[in-house]
Amino acid sequence: MWPDFVHTSTMSKSALVKVILLGDGGVGKSSLMNRYVANKFDSHLFHTIGVEFLNKELEVDGQQVTLQIWDTAGQERFRSLRTPFYRGSDCCLLTFSLDDGQSFRNLANWKKEFAYYADVKDPDNFPFVVLGNKVDVADRQVSAEDAQRWCRDNGGCPYFETSAKDATNVASAFEEAVRRILALDDRADHLIHTDMVDLKKKKEPQSPSCC
Ligand SMILES: Nc1nc2c(ncn2[C@@H]2O[C@H](COP(=O)(O)OP(=O)(O)OP(=O)(O)O)[C@@H](O)[C@H]2O)c(=O)[nH]1
Ligand SMILES: [Mg+2]
């Protein structure tokens, strides 16, 4: 029960959504998260060990959203540290680097690993978004056509060519992930009570009690 000074007009519901970044070590997952959340880029970032997450508040199509971005360690030796965090993800961002053909060929393994540990029964109907990162580099090894074909063959997931370095398409990719999640049926269970209580708002005048 809310105390009587809390007026419903002072509360706003925010949806909490969890997206997880997966992909080979070095493709730029941490850089994408840092670019999006902090608008920063570090050209000498250390490999991630385990997982890290950051929150970002945003509004998509009039809906307030708390986006929780989970960044994982892509290196094989950290597999057991990252997989326990897959469960509960609303969207998975499968990331490869456009200058690293092997990271693209590994997307199928990442999808499989995610589906297994997140316990996703029907992966082709789960919201995956594919990111081809480092679009700023000159020596590209993966064509847009090959990447788009992979997406078509894998449930028709959206594909973005991004650059964490110069910010190309980074916000669009995360926002599309949120749109995909919000478009799914029955989001009611994700509406968490981050109800904002405006403590500065004056108490509503009480109607005189009658007895
Ligand atoms: N040119 C260019 N370099 C990038 C881009 N994104 C990341 N990098 C660089 O690529 C290297 C690896 O980036 P990270 O973000 O650490 O990669 P990661 O996927 O998080 O790697 P792990 O933590 O090992 O899984 C860093 O030196 C980054 O500066 C990009 O869009 N363009
Ligand atoms: Mg990292």
Automatic annotation (TrEMBL):
Enzyme class: hydrolase
The organism of origin for this protein: Tetraodon nigroviridis
UniProt cross-references to SMART domains, sorted A to Z: RAB (SM00175), RAN (SM00176), RAS (SM00173), RHO (SM00174)
Main location: membrane
Protein name: small monomeric GTPase
UniProt similarity note: Belongs to the small GTPase superfamily. Rab family.
Keywords (A to Z) from UniProt: Cell membrane, Cytoplasmic vesicle, GTP-binding, Hydrolase, Lipoprotein, Membrane, Nucleotide-binding, Phosphoprotein, Prenylation, Protein transport, Transport
Pfam families according to UniProt: Ras (PF00071)
PANTHER family to which the protein is assigned, alphabetical: RAB FAMILY, RAS-RELATED PROTEIN RAB-9A
